[in-house]
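Example record

The entry below shows one chain as it appears in the dataset: sequence first, then structure tokens.
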Amino acid sequence: MPVIWLTPVLTDGSVVEAITANPAPQLLVGGTGARFGVPRAALATGRQVLEIPEADHSLRVPGSVRRYTGVLGLVEYAQVCLEEINRPARDPHDLAAAHQRLLAAEHRAVAAVATWGTR
């Protein structure tokens, strides 16, 4: 089953084992300020990694709440992408609907990130 791991505790061997044992597409999301999301351990799993600069274990980043909502927008976009990659397309209408879902999620993520510099 495709999975997005939000701030996985990579210092726990059973978590690393669960990640590496699952053959489905996975994305590990963590912050550079988190104690448990060891970047080398994340990369060593061989899975895709989305590293959020300065984010702590709860994905909070320094600064305004808008910066935090930007992070959540990026995570949502990643989730939609993972879902669409793994959804079997039945006909061209499915592809068009998938494209619209991706565009909508991308728009929300870009809009959220664009507010990072504002208060």
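Notes for this example: Residues 1-61 form one domain. The helical segments are 13-21, 39-44, 65-85, 92-114.
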